[in-house]
Amino acid sequence: MSPSSTARVMILARQTLLRQGLRRALSSAGFQVVADVADGPAGVRYAANLRPDVILLDPGGVAGPEPSLLGALLSAAPRSRVIALTDDLGAAPGRYQVCLPKTADLRALATLIRAVHRGDFSPAGPPAPLPPTCTAPALGEGDRALLTLLAGGLSNRQIAAQLHVSEKTVRNQLTRTFGRLRVHNRTQAAVYALRAGLVYP
């Protein structure tokens, strides 16, 4: 897949309103939604035929056993990346390639889709994976505000303007926050924060 191309997304969720809402929101954000599917077997067929870059999966809203469905999706479309929309983050890291809480907003979802599409997130997980309990370091309000803007794709200058501080302050705070999260760059920090629910909805 080309990192500069538009991500091709397939939505797999039983609820019609959820599928329709995601389709409209992602299309307006510039993604190409190639299909929205209600059940697992049909989703596997669509994945095999369409080979989407990213599959958005609502695990609790799709018929069929989760592990076998995930395996079937990855067998049908090995190059696709599956993002699970789930609040069961305690189990998610060992079960899915990437997970995002359902409380996240469109900006957070779009950031994660772009990161996965660019290849910044491998199937094995980020360089600093969350522990099995999905606990994360305690961060202050300033750190969470910074991570929220970072996950939204803002530059240091834009973050500084939003927080009414200097760019140097933003750089210093990012360095400290990276250390607390044990990550090495902006993308890793954004993905970690999204997975751990550290960003504001």
Automatic annotation (TrEMBL):
* Any one GO molecular function term: DNA binding
- Where is the PTM 4-aspartylphosphate found along the chain? D58
Mind listing the UniProt keywords for this protein, alphabetically? DNA-binding, Phosphoprotein
Q: Which PROSITE patterns match?
A: HTH_LUXR_1 (PS00622), HTH_LUXR_2 (PS50043), RESPONSE_REGULATORY (PS50110)
One biological process GO term for this chain?
phosphorelay signal transduction system
Q: Which residues form the Response regulatory domain?
A: 8-117
Ranges of residues in domain HTH luxR-type: 132-197
Protein name as annotated: DNA-binding NarL/FixJ family response regulator
| UniProt source species | Deinococcus metalli
